């Protein structure tokens, strides 16, 4: 991970939202201050989306999350109602992600396929490789982690709202970001673990019978 990405993530997802909330709540009120504080992260996410060329399943998931989340925020009409709607949306997203496991289209696998495609790997062959039983089970667990993250954060936000209310949005913001980074680290570790499994698979099958493998270079997920 580049240091600049970490700095920009901190700036747009935490520092700027906190400053906007802290300085704007007295003038704008809680609802509009919270709403405005989400703008830097929204713009930054769109920028990263375009710059990194994330399309297909990954792109659709990001755009849906941004569009639906922003629409819910705009229609909420009040600070506390908006935060509670975010809780319900988080539960919905957890169920949606879990459903991809039930229909045998685990979201984590499609994310990995999209990343490999951006890096030059054929999409159909990559998906065929990732569906092999020895790899597919790990993508199921990884997708389960995505779903659990969404459910956990919805539960954490609901607990903090019941304890402190919208007036402590700055504390809620920090708590949510920290928990998000922890889960982000676990998810990255999951992708690295699967990547190593696939790399070892290629190494074991180089030359001879390994020719059945659709990708002979180190996997890029």
SSE blueprint:
Elements (H helix, E strand, L loop, with lengths): L2 H26 L1 H8 L1 H13 L4 H21 L2 H24 L4 H12 L4 H8 L2 H32 L4 H36 L17
Write a structural description.
The chain is an all-alpha fold and 221 residues long. The chain has 9 helices and no strands. Helix 4 (56-76) runs antiparallel to helix 5. The radius of gyration is 20 Å and the shape is elongated. Mean pLDDT is 81; it is low at 208-221.
User: DSSP strand (E) fraction?
Assistant: under 5%
Assign a percent range to the helix content: over 70%
C-alpha Rg (nearest Å): 20 Å
N-end to C-end Cα span: 14 Å
The description of the largest β-sheet is:
none
Tags for this model:
221 residues, disordered C terminus, elongated, 9 helices
Task: Briefly characterize the structure.
The chain has 221 residues and is mostly helical.
């Amino acid at each position: 991970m580049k240091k600049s990405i970490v700095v920009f993530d901190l700036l747009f997802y935490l520092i700027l939202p906190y400053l906007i909330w802290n300085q704007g709540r007295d003038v704008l009120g809680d609802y509009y201050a919270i709403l405005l504080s989400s703008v830097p992260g929204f713009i930054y996410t769109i920028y990263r989306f375009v710059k990194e060329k994330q399309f297909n399943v990954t792109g659709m998931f990001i755009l849906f999350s941004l569009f639906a989340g922003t629409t819910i925020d705009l229609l909420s009409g009040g600070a506390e109602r908006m935060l509670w709607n975010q809780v319900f949306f988080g539960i919905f997203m957890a169920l949606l992600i879990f459903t991809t496991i039930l229909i045998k289209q685990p979201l984590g696998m499609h994310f990995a396929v999209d990343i490999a495609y951006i890096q030059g790997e054929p999409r159909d062959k990559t998906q065929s490789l990732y569906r092999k039983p020895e790899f597919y089970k790990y993508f199921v667990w990884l997708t389960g982690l995505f779903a659990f993250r969404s459910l956990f954060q919805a539960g954490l936000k609901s607990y903090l709202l019941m304890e402190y209310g919208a007036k402590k949005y700055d504390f809620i913001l920090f708590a949510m970001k920290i928990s998000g980074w922890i889960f982000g680290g676990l998810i990255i570790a999951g992708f690295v673990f699967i990547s190593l499994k696939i790399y070892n698979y290629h190494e074991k099958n180089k030359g001879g019978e390994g020719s059945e493998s659709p990708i002979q270079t180190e996997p890029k997920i």
